[in-house]
Amino acid sequence: MRKAKVITALALTVVMLVVMTGLAAALTMIAATDGSGNDKYTFSPGENVYVTGVNLPTDDSVDVYVTQNVSWSNGDSIANAGVILVRYNVNSTQVENTLFLGTVSNAGGTYDIPYPGTYDIVYDADQDGTYDGGADYVDYVTCTGFETIPEFATIAIPVAAILGLLFFYNYRKRKEE
Fold first, then answer.
1. CB-based burial of residue 94 (10 Å sphere; 0-12 exposed, 13-18 middle, 19+ buried)?
2. What's the predicted TM-score (pTM) here?
3. Which residues contact 120 (CB under 8 A, 6 or more apart)?
4. What is the C-alpha to C-alpha distance for residues 115 and 58, in angstroms, rounded to an integer?
5. Domain boundaries, the chain
């Protein structure tokens, strides 16, 4: 009897895994990635940002945007929802094959994505400039799609200065005693 329960539990587990894998494979999604198509959520200055799609409709003309991060709702105007940093009019197959979006930089170039900041990637399938929850995709609808972080020196220098001041005041305090 106990052996039958174990076999039944294992069989149910295998069925659940197969169903979950099938559901995951059927999902259509886009995500920020590196040049190899690996998911990446944090980018440093000088790094290139790409988008890769999974199970997107093929050979359709689409618009791909990089916007400031917002919480998206059906019917939101892409232009009004956040500042558009980059906009591409491409074939959906290009997104499936990893599409270059821009470089993390504060130089102000056409394809520069400023740092620090939080951003979304919007895939506008019907090219109407509006986020349609049934037809369009956002890398993460309710949270940050990806973020850019400052250079190490931007953080390290102020921290070192504060620590130096603390040590200096501590030294002066001990010297006076």
1. middle
2. 0.71
3. 66, 67, 68, 69, 70, 72, 82, 138, 139, 140, 144, 145
4. 33
5. 29-176
| Listed residue (19, 39, 42, 20) closest to 30, CA to CA | 39
Domain over 29-176 is classified CATH 2.60.40.4070: no
- List CB contacts of 25: < 8 A, sequence separation 6 or more: 55
Task: Residue 159: count other Cβ atoms within 10 Å of its Cβ.
Answer: 9
Could you tell me where the DSSP H helices lie in the chain?
Answer: 2-26, 78-81, 92-96, 152-176
Closest by CA to 65, choosing from 90, 35, 85, 81, is 85
For residue 137, what is the DSSP state? E
- Mean residue pLDDT of the chain comes to 82
Q: What is the pLDDT of residues 29-74, one digit of tens each?
A: 899 999 999 999 999 999 999 999 988 887 789 999 999 998 899 9
C-alpha to C-alpha distance for 70 and 164, rounded to whole angstroms: 39
Q: Pull the structure tokens for residue 69.
A: 């991060």
Residue entry with tokens 């501590």: 170
Instruction: Tell the residue number behind the tokens 């886009």, with chain if given.
Output: 30
Question: In whole angstroms, how large is the CA radius of gyration of the chain?
Answer: 23
